[in-house]
């Protein structure tokens, strides 16, 4: 994955040092480069700060009383909450073994005092960019997992819902195939009518599937216009008639003829269809699915 233009301005950096003069120097360099600064004068103060606020990066001195920087770094890297925060040691301890200890404990970098401000800024920026890139990738991975889970749920629901109209189409096609010659004209018309409604319902489901696919690719069109809610509700009732008939469910609505909503008609129809279809699915046999319409000063409310 290629990630460009990672903006590190306004990133928060926690400076942990027991010498106020060192903090002033570091703070001045960082502030004029648009970084937010937090300060801790001891390891314990740093832990208290981290318990309520997680910075984007920590600049850590080694030589401090009570708990030194190495001990604090080890503690942070062993804590799930703070292990992802990059740590840069900024210290006067310059022995090779000290540097190796710092890296072994999980620090991202090690800068020896006195330091060059340009070098310090370059290293800070690099590690902030790396952290923000990791955070972005993590967020994208979570989004992909959520989308995949939604897709699997959606296809599972679609596969389940498609069974009803497909079963009706198969059943009545088979009935006409084998019994057409001996059926009464009224029976033929009724069977063809149910076939038509089942195909219309199946077509509607396929359109919903295509709309869902467009939404996932941000390709869905939004074309609002004035829609007559009563006409749209009756259209949905007509599409779901076979599904309702199986459970002997009645439809009823109290929508006024002049009830109009400014909305995308396909989206509105999709919403009504999904809500009414779910109502049919989860209602008991011989139940009633009703639509009510309430108007307020600021909105219209449709209750299913």
Give your account of this protein's structure.
The protein is α/β, with parallel strands linked by helices and 304 residues long. The protein is 55% helix and 15% strand. It contains nine helices and ten strands. The strands form three sheets. Strands 2-1-3-4-5 form a five-stranded parallel beta sheet, with helices on both faces. Helix 1 links the parallel strand 1 (12-16) and strand 2. Helix 5 runs antiparallel to helix 6 (185-216).
List keywords for this structure.
single chain, 304 residues, 10 strands, alpha/beta, 15% strand, 5-stranded parallel β-sheet
Question: Taking strands numbered 1, 2, ... along the chain, how are they ordered across the largest sheet?
Answer: 2-1-3-4-5
- Unreliable stretches, pLDDT < 50, 5 or more residues? none
Class derived from helix and strand content: alpha/beta
How many strand units? Answer: 10
* Molecular shape: elongated
Q: Give the termini distance in whole angstroms.
A: 46 Å
Order of helices and strands: EHEHEHEHEHHEHHEEHEE
Quickly count the helices. 9
Computed Rg: 33 Å
Strand content: 15-25%
The overall pLDDT average reads 86
Helix content: 55-70%
Q: Main β-sheet: number of strands, strand sense, barrel status?
A: 5 strands, parallel
Q: What is the topology?
A:
Elements: E1 12-16, H1 20-31, E2 36-40, H2 43-50, E3 57-60, H3 69-77, E4 87-91, H4 96-104, E5 109-112, H5 117-179, H6 185-216, E6 225-228, H7 229-239, H8 241-246, E7 250-253, E8 260-263, H9 265-282, E9 288-295, E10 300-303
Parallel strand pairs: 1-2, 1-3, 3-4, 4-5, 7-9
Antiparallel strand pairs: 6-8, 9-10
Helix pairs in contact: 5-6, 7-9
């Amino acid at each position: 994955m290629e990630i460009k233009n990672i903006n590190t301005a306004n990133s928060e950096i926690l400076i942990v040092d027991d010498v106020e003069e060192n903090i002033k120097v570091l703070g001045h360099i960082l502030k004029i480069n648009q970084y937010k600064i937090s300060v801790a004068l001891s390891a314990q103060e740093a832990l208290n700060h981290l318990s309520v606020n997680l910075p984007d990066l920590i600049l850590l001195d080694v030589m401090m009383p009570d708990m030194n920087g190495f001990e604090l770094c080890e503690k942070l890297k062993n804590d799930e909450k703070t292990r992802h925060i990059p740590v840069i040691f900024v210290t006067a301890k310059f022995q090779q073994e000290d540097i190796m200890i710092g890296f072994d404990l999980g620090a991202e970098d090690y800068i020896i005092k006195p330091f060059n401000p340009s070098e310090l800024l370059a290293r800070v920026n690099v590690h902030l960019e790396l952290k923000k890139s990791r955070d972005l990738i993590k967020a994208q991975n979570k989004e992909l997992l959520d989308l995949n889970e939604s897709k699997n749920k959606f296809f599972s629901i679609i596969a389940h819902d498609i069974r009803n109209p497909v079963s009706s189409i198969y059943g009545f096609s088979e009935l006409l195939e084998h019994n057409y010659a001996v059926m009464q004209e009224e029976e033929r018309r009724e069977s063809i009518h149910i076939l038509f409604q089942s195909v219309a319902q199946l077509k509607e489901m396929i359109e919903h599937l295509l709309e869902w696919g467009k939404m996932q690719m941000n390709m869905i069109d939004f074309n609002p216009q004035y829609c007559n809610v009563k006409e749209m509700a009756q259209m949905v009732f007509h599409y779901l008639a076979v599904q309702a008939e199986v459970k002997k469910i009645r439809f009823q609505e109290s929508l006024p003829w002049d009830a109009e909503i400014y909305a995308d008609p396909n989206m509105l129809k999709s919403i009504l269809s999904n809500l009414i279809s779910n109502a049919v699915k989860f209602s008991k046999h011989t139940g009633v699915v009703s639509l009510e319409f309430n108007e307020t000063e600021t909105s219209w409310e449709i209750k299913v």
